[in-house]
Amino acid sequence: MAANLKQVVDQNLECPVCLSFFKEPKILTCSHTFCKGCLQSFLDFQPDEQKLSCPVCRKETVVTDGEVSRLQTNLTVRALVEDVQTQVQVCSNCDSEDKALAVVYCKDCGDYLCESCKKMHSKWAKFSGHSIVAASDVCTGKVTLRRKGQCQKHPSEDEECFCLDCNEYICFRCSVLEHTQGGHKVLEAAVYETEQKKNIDDLASKAKSKICDFDKYVAYVAEQRGRLQKVQEDLSRDIDVAYEETVRKLTERKGVLKSDVGQRIKKFDKLLENMEQKGCQQITRINAVCGLVENGLKIPLQKEALRTHKTLCQEMEQLLSRVDQNDQNPRRTAEEGEQLRFTPSQRTEGLEMGQLQGDSMWILHMESQLPIKNSMRGMAVSPGNTVDIGCWTGGIVTFSSDGILQEVVLNTLEMCALQFTTDGGYVIRDYGNNICLYTPHCCKKLRVKFETLSDEEGGLGDLTVDKDGNILSSYRTTKTIQVFEPSGGKPVREIQCEGFEPQQIFAMGSRDMVVVKSDGHTVRVLDGLSGATMDCITKEGVDAYPAVCKDDSILIAWVNYEQGLVSISQYTRELKHIQNVVTDFKITKPSRPWYYLQEFKTGEIAFCTPGKLFIFRETRD
To answer: Locate the RING-type domain: which residues (predicted)?
Structure first.
């Protein structure tokens, strides 16, 4: 009985993550306790480093500045662990009352043995293959004992079965008397453990494959940085040649030019460095969670450890599904750096020496008054590379990428959102939240019905079409996004927007991600399946209006409505800054603070106010 009691005590002093005695135990707000190091590892692969989701119950604990050390220490557990680790273990085989101190533990017999009993044990042939470990290693938790649990209802019975519905080990009697009769699915414990091992092996295999991919990616990014280094060396050599030809008078000009080269190359190199670091961080995160998941192979998991391990496996699945590398970004960045050219000056006097060429700039290409004044409610770029503007008073206005007005259709149709199907047909949402489809060109309404929320139920919102042709409809009141197949009917799934309104939404062209304008000043990138916020960016004092580019980078127009100023910047899909496109562009303050941003397939940028369309175009110096 005492041995069973000690086993229960020891088991409850083990961390559910690492399955060893608690080391620096920290308690969460939900009252669950874990090792400080285990919590730090678990926090490292959480989307928000300021919040920690409990591996057992999933309740969140705020982690100030991401420092796990600031969490409250569980002083009681720490004291118990210290007492257990310092206690003296006596021989469990001696018959006398004054038992000798144990020096070893037999993992096969389950007995602590003193020096005399150890010698006797080693002489018996049937004990020759038994595994012997130091008793001190067992007491300090250095060696974890493999043990089979006893049923709490039937103490004489081993937990030989596992109930999938209750997620716990049970004895055979419990299986027959309770769980099977209740319709639960029960497996032999050995079968369940075999399946768990296979699942863990599969996850570990996926992790190794993903790490291999990122190893190649990091090497590829380094190669692109080498290309930039070569560009800098070539440019420096050309500058040196021109310097030698114009002698000492050009020393100051030479320094200016080299500094310019360094600054321009540094901009591209910094982008590649960030990509390289992100790749390395992903490798570290995958290794960390993989190590925690593989801990589940050590012993049959019990109680909180089972729930913790299930949570870890789910976290690893999500981590592996959302991390990926994009070879296009480093290649494109290096190619932009290669566009730099040094052109020697043809003048024989002065300190001109030459100029660096290759940087681009954005200029206003066209500004046009909308034919239907102060009525813009939505804007989308068609497969034919036109920009179509939907009007809440009725009509769709079409402009070419050169800013030429082409046509106005569906004059009587009032709308609050506009998008295109993959074949160029219109997807229109009216003020009753009804979604209608129209054919290209002739604009014939299709007989397809979508079971959307009414305006009273869901409130106003926006439309977008994802890479698979599905239609996404957002609702500001219910803070949800419904996903419909183009054939209509009920939504196939619903995305919950936790704590924010989806005001404008844009689906990425190659990934299951949705870019959302929320709360005025904030842009978020959501997982299109789970709705989890992957990244977000906020600027106080200005309103954000996003758009997704053809390469899945993100444009954001930051609008100061009161001052009538617009700045447009480009970001990666992780919302890392790439470049400033337009800075403090002055517009006439419209009567309604409502704007839309889009990128043409040919690269021009369209920005629309309720009454005007602006088209910006990139030029090279």
So the answer is: 15-58
Neighbours of 613 (CB within 10 A): 22
Considering only residues 276 and 595, tell me which one the structure prediction assigns the higher pLDDT: 595
pLDDT for the residue 507: 96
**Among 529, 530, 535, which residue's Cα sits nearest to residue 516?**
535
State the residue for tokens 């496109």. Answer: 581
Beta-strand ranges (E) seen in 107-246 are 111-113, 132-134, 161-163, 168-170, 186-188
Query: Which of 231, 218, 340 has its CA nearest to residue 284?
Result: 218
* Rounded Cα–Cα distance for residues 605 and 557 (Å): 11
Cα 520 from Cα 561, distance rounded (Å):
12
Cα 234 to Cα 615: distance, rounded to the nearest angstrom = 37
Which residue from 588, 512, 521, 495 is spatially nearest to 548, judged by alpha carbons?
A: 512
Question: Helix crossing, 251-294 with 189-245: angle to 10°?
Answer: 170
Task: Return contacts of 312-315, CB within 8 angstroms, 24+ apart.
Answer: 312/17, 312/42, 312/55, 313/199, 313/200, 313/203, 315/45, 315/289
Most confident of 121-130, 255-264, 281-290, 388-397: 388-397
Torsion of CA 317, 318, 322, 324, to 10 degrees: -30
Cα distance between residue 425 and residue 388, in whole Å: 12
CA distances from 108 to 145, 147, 352, 439 (A): 10, 10, 87, 76
To the question of domain 360-620 being in CATH 3.40.50.980, the answer is no
Specify the amino acid at residue 481. Answer: I
Measure the CA–CA gap between 318 and 439, rounded to whole angstroms.
Answer: 39
Residue 43: CB atoms within 10 A of its CB come to: 19
| Cα gap 514→499, rounded to integer Å | 16
Q: Which two tokens stand for residue 196?
A: 């768990």
Q: CB burial class (10 A; 0-12, 13-18, 19+) of residue 351?
A: middle
Kindly report the number of other CB atoms within 10 A of residue 566's CB atom.
23
One-letter amino acid identity for 380? A
Asked if pLDDT for residue 1 goes beyond 50, the answer is no
- Tell me how far apart the alpha carbons of residues 161 and 172 are, in angstroms, rounded to a whole number: 6
Kind plus residue range of the DSSP H or E element containing 605: strand 605-608
In 247-327, alpha helices (H) = 251-294, 303-322
Distance CA 478, CA 501 (A): 8
Strands 513-518 and 504-507: antiparallel
Q: Domain limits of the chain? A: 2-139, 213-357, 360-620
Its pTM surpasses 0.85 = no
SS3 state of residue 31: coil
Look up the CATH superfamily of 2-139: Zinc/RING finger domain, C3HC4 (zinc finger) (3.30.40.10)
Read off the pLDDT band of 2 (50, 70, 90).
very low
Residue (of 573, 605, 585, 513) closest to 542 by Cα position: 585
Separation CA 518–CA 302 (nearest Å): 43
